[in-house]
């Protein structure tokens, strides 16, 4: 029998709850797809100011992302269609300092560097690097007040432009560790709008110390995650089998990494990190938009180490490590982004002008972009860059909480810039009639897992079945191919295989399939992800050369095949090996109780 005091507490709590506004939340199968960019730089990033002369600030970046026109060097520019969400991720290192150096009435106006820059002196790339990576970038000047002021303005802007339900803004920043020009960068995305001063690579270049920052914040109720990007130019460090001290990865490291880095950026303007022809020689599509130039300016080696720099190999390594140490450090889903340094999140081939420029450009600048100028680019070959990617998120509503939680569970996909829609489920009992049912999604969800989930406990003779749903960008090219890439471990060694699931030689608006693994072995840990390809369309370099009446660059393909990648779905032989908190579905016929 309930005591009077307990009854009073219950009534008090009920009264409080009744005053809290509620937001209707859809059932899981009613989730919608939302598109956005989680990696964008404005004039608050020092490298954007120095290397691209960017003056686009926070307000214009948000306005452009939600579809409004903005002024760029006297030109009015607008996205073809608005994004659903955006994260401005300016570099933590010297955030706001570059901007302040160019302000005649700013806090650095009386420094010699500011006077020289405002007088028109060009800063060499080496000087920019020293400024970027120094705890005291300007002799005799404490820049901490500038960093604090810039972060305060970032937080104010992210709330000023947030429109729950229609346009979500995430608070974020980039941690930019680059030991010996080897890229270990991560973007930090916060679930809410409160966060302490960013932890930068000048505080520590070790990812483990960034995780400590995230974990300490989490203990205080400030939730965030980190998204590694450009593994392709990490020189093998991003997915190495050792930690920052060169010690073999252990279970504690694996658990911390999986917790703090549940997703990775598979595609952006500086190339794709899915795989490489040297790692996947039997995959004829592995050479898509390769960027093989370590970031460091003149004199740096052009190509870094391939092994340890790509997702597919990392996923296989993670499966093998999980067998050996009981935890998987490389269990993560995928997102796509731009990493543009012009403040304008746009991914169209027709409007791409390199990672730092936009709009109509003089012929000499166009020649530099196309690699035909006599003056080489001092940082990277711009012709090798691409127009950037997008993230697709399946969530109940367009709010920070719903979108962030979907990122956490990896119910995401990435595209090379077009708005392909991609959804994948896996289960043990999907019948051939599932595609014809009006309640297809509800049944798929109830009897299986979505992207990012885990299947467990296969019964003898059973193999997983996958429901794959892909739809073309309404303004893009038709879809040409659905593929499943399987990665598995046999006797401790990872293997991979690409399966063509559906091929439409003349293109199709939609591609849908129920696919069953013909080679399934219930004793072998594995994962599956989907790749969708469009029909070929002209690459940005082809379009730009054509519009400027210049020869097309011969060292780049005339056309590309835009694509999308799903987050993986994992299979684990034993239910007990599934990580806590992840949704897993066992084959009901395998039960013995």
Salient structural properties:
593 residues, 14-stranded mixed β-sheet, 4-stranded antiparallel β-sheet, globular, 14 helices, alpha+beta, 25 strands
Which structural class do you get from the secondary structure elements? alpha+beta
The main β sheet shows up as: 14 strands, mixed
Query: Residue share in helices?
Result: 10-25%
Mean pLDDT: 90
Beta-strand content bin: 15-25%
| Count of DSSP strands | 25
Note the gap between the termini. 36 Å
The parts where pLDDT drops under 50 for at least 5 residues are 1-25, 576-581
- Based on CA inertia axes, which overall geometry fits? globular
Number of helices: 14
What value does the Rg take, in angstroms? 24 Å
Set out the fold topology.
Layout (H helix, E strand, L loop, with lengths): L3 H15 L13 E9 L5 H7 L5 H8 L4 E3 L2 E3 L7 E4 L8 H5 L10 H7 L6 H8 L11 H17 L7 E8 L10 E5 L16 H13 L4 E5 L22 H10 L2 E6 L2 E2 L38 H15 L7 E4 L26 H8 L19 E6 L4 H10 L2 E4 L5 E7 L12 H7 L1 E3 L3 E3 L8 E7 L7 E12 L2 E16 L1 E7 L9 E9 L2 E2 L1 H8 L11 E2 L2 E4 L2 E4 L11 E3 L7
Parallel strand pairs: 1-4, 4-5, 8-10, 15-24, 15-25
Antiparallel strand pairs: 1-11, 2-3, 5-6, 6-7, 8-9, 11-12, 12-23, 13-14, 13-16, 16-19, 17-18, 17-20, 20-23, 20-24, 21-22
Question: Can you give a write-up of this model?
Answer:
By secondary structure, the chain is an alpha+beta fold. The protein has a domain of 290 residues. It has 14 helices and 25 strands. The strands form five sheets. Strands 1, 4, 5, 6, 7, 11, 12, 15, 17, 18, 20, 23, 24 and 25 form a 14-stranded mixed β-sheet that branches. Strand 2 and strand 3 form a beta hairpin. The longest helix is centred in the first third of the chain and has 17 residues. It is globular, with a radius of gyration of 24 Å. It starts with a helix and ends in a 7-residue tail after the last strand. The N terminus is likely disordered.
């Amino acid at each position: 029998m309930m005591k009077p005091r307990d009854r009073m507490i219950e009534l008090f709590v009920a009264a409080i709850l009744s005053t809290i506004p509620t937001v209707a939340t859809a059932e899981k199968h009613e989730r919608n797809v939302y598109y956005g960019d989680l990696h964008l730089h404005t004039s608050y990033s020092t490298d954007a100011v120095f290397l691209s002369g960017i003056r686009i600030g926070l307000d214009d970046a948000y306005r452009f992302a939600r579809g409004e026109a903005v002024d760029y060097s006297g030109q009015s520019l607008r996205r073809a269609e608005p994004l659903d969400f955006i994260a401005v991720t300016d570099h933590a290192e010297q955030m706001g300092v570059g901007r302040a150096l160019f302000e005649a009435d700013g806090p650095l106006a009386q420094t010699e560097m500011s006077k020289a820059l405002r007088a028109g002196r060009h800063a060499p790339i080496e000087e920019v690097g020293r400024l970027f990576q120094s705890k005291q970038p300007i002799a005799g000047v404490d820049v901490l007040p500038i960093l604090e002021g810039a972060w305060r303005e970032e937080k104010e802007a992210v709330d000023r432009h947030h429109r729950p339900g229609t346009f979500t803004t995430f608070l974020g920043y980039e941690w930019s560790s680059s030991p010996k020009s080897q890229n270990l960068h991560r973007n930090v995305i916060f679930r809410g709008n409160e966060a302490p001063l960013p932890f930068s690579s000048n505080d520590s270049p070790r990812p483990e110390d960034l995780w400590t920052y995230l974990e300490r914040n989490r203990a205080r109720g400030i939730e965030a995650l980190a998204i590694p990007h450009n593994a392709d130019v990490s020189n093998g460090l991003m997915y190495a089998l050792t930690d920052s001290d060169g010690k073999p990865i252990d279970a504690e490291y694996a658990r911390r990494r999986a917790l703090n880095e549940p997703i990775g950026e598979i595609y952006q303007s500086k190339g794709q990190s899915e795989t490489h022809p040297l790692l996947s020689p039997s995959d004829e599509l592995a050479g898509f938009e390769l960027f093989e130039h370590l970031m460091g300016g003149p004199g740096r080696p052009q190509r870094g180490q391939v092994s340890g720099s790509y997702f597919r190999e990392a996923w296989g390594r993670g499966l093998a490590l999980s067998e050996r140490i009981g935890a998987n450090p490389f269990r993560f889903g995928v997102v796509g982004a731009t990493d543009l340094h012009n403040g304008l999140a746009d991914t169209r081939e027709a409007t791409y002008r390199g990672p730092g420029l936009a709009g109509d450009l003089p012929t000499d600048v166009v020649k530099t972009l196309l690699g035909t100028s006599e003056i080489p680019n001092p940082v990277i070959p711009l012709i090798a860059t691409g127009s950037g990617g997008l993230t697709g998120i399946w969530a109940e509503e367009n709010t920070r909480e719903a979108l962030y939680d979907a990122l956490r569970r990896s119910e995401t996909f990435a595209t090379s810039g077009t708005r392909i829609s991609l959804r994948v489920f896996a289960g043990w009992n999907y019948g051939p009639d599932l595609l014809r049912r009006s309640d297809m999604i509800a049944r798929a969800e109830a009897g299986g897992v979505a992207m990012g989930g885990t299947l467990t406990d296969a019964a003898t003779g059973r193999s997983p079945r996958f429901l794959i749903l892909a739809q073309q960008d309404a303004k893009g090219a038709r879809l040409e191919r659905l593929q499943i890439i399987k990665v598995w471990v046999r006797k401790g060694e990872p293997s991979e295989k690409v399966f063509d699931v559906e091929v439409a030689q003349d293109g199709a608006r939609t591609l849908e399939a129920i696919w069953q693994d013909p080679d399934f072995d219930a004793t072998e840990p594995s994962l599956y992800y989907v790749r969708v390809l469009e029909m070929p369309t002209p690459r940005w370099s082809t379009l730009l050369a054509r519009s400027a009446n210049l020869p097309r660059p011969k060292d780049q393909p005339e056309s590309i095949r835009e694509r999308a990648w799903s987050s993986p779905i994992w299979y684990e032989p034993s239910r007990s090996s599934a990580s806590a908190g992840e949704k897993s579905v066992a084959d009901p016929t395998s039960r013995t109780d």
